[in-house]
């Protein structure tokens, strides 16, 4: 996914060149794909970033804004990062579903894959990497403008050598006849995938696999019925749910420690009584065995030594977890002897 071929670059370093696509990383949920141009610049909330200063730097480096207000990371584009940074022309598949598709279609270098429809090209980039360098991805979309935009993305990201984009209504016309019997895997993202199953049967090699992505269970039921009628075996449907965790440092002087301190104070407290003259109040008296606050965030004992409070790393699930995206139905073309 680089403008300058990998073989023309140094083996020990991958530097940014003019024309490269760079994924500008601000945080895990805020990225942007930028094509490096001479005298170009990027402006965001962290400042102004001239492209000329990027050229010659290695991918993965940190660069600061011209005004020094902040910094970003310049990452080499990968299918995973492209999925998070690409311009959305349609709803897309994300990493959880994509990894499942690539794995269960049993894709490897040299495989031939059919995809319908192309959409924004999120899945296509991962398919291309899986089958490269000797395989090929044939992707189809009925919308000509979308297909042209996807073709430009594939050329810009350097995967056009293993991806062919065509405008075709797969539900109505089926896959091209020239691909009959030479396909290892088929992926369908269609409103009525069952209409394309007869064409899938003609295209797949013996023991080939098909995957259909559908958001509604009614689509899944009808697709499974048609797959069964065409003698497909090992028909299975999955729903992939991803739960993300946030990892951060956090002070734990709460809950258990607080309750333990409260219990110890309550246990040693004297019973209620009228204070006598000269008696020192527990709250106002000197802390002979306690800890005094230290301005650096720690605590100071009576002996004068400073005890630093530890900040352990906490992992907890995000309060908002992505739910249902769609159902993935897989089936294997069986051969009758």
From TrEMBL:
Its EC number is 2.1.1.220. It is found in: Nucleus. It holds the Pfam family GCD14. Belongs to the class I-like SAM-binding methyltransferase superfamily. TRM61 family. InterPro entries: SAM-dependent_MTases_sf, TRM61_C, tRNA_MeTrfase_Gcd14. Keywords: Methyltransferase, Nucleus, S-adenosyl-L-methionine, Transferase, tRNA processing. One of its GO terms (cellular component) is tRNA (m1A) methyltransferase complex. It comes from Physcomitrium patens (Spreading-leaved earth moss). It catalyses: adenosine(58) in tRNA + S-adenosyl-L-methionine = N(1)-methyladenosine(58) in tRNA + S-adenosyl-L-homocysteine + H(+). It comes from the Eukaryota. The lineage of its organism: Eukaryota, Viridiplantae, Streptophyta, Embryophyta, Bryophyta. Its main location: nucleus. Residues 70-332 form the tRNA (adenine(58)-N(1))-methyltransferase catalytic subunit TRM61 C-terminal domain. Residues 277-294 have a biased composition (Basic and acidic residues). The keyword Magnesium does not apply. S-adenosyl-L-methionine binds at residues 120-123, 141, 169, 189. Residues 260-324 are annotated as: Disordered. One of its GO terms (molecular function) is tRNA (adenine(58)-N1)-methyltransferase activity. This is tRNA (adenine(58)-N(1))-methyltransferase.
């Amino acid at each position: 996914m680089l403008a300058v071929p990998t073989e023309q670059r140094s083996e020990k370093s991958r530097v940014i060149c003019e024309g490269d696509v760079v994924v500008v990383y601000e945080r895990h949920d805020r990225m942007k794909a930028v094509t490096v141009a001479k005298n170009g610049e990027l402006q965001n909330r962290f400042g102004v970033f001239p492209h000329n200063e990027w050229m010659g730097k290695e991918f993965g480096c940190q660069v600061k804004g011209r005004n020094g207000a902040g910094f970003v990371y310049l990452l080499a584009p990968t299918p995973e990062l492209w999925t998070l940074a690409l311009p959305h022309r349609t709803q897309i598949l994300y990493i959880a579903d994509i990894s499942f598709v690539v794995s269960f279609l049993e894709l490897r270098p040299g495989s031939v894959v059919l995809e319908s429809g192309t959409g924004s090209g999120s899945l296509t980039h991962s398919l291309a990497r899986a089958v490269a360098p000797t395989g090929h991805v044939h992707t189809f979309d009925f919308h000509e403008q979308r297909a042209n935009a996807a073709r430009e993305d594939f050329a810009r990201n350097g995967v056009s050598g293993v991806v062919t984009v065509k405008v075709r209504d797969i539900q109505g016309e089926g896959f091209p006849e020239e691909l009959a019997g030479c396909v290892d895997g088929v992926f369908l993202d269609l409103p009525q995938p069952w209409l394309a199953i007869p064409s899938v049967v003609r295209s797949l090699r013996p023991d080939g696999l098909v995957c259909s992505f559908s958001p509604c269970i009614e689509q899944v039921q009808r697709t499974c019925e048609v797959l069964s009628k065409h003698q497909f075996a090992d028909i299975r449907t999955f729903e992939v749910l991803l739960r993300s965790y946030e990892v951060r440092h956090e002070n734990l002087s709460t809950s258990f420690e607080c309750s333990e301190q409260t219990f110890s104070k309550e246990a040693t407290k004297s019973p209620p009584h009228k204070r006598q003259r000269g008696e020192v109040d527990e709250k106002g008296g000197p802390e002979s065995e306690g800890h005094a606050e230290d301005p650096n965030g720690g605590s100071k004992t009576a002996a004068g030594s400073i005890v630093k409070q530890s900040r352990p790393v906490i992992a907890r699930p995000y309060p908002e977890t992505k739910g249902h995206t769609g159902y993935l139905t897989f089936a294997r073309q069986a051969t009758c002897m």
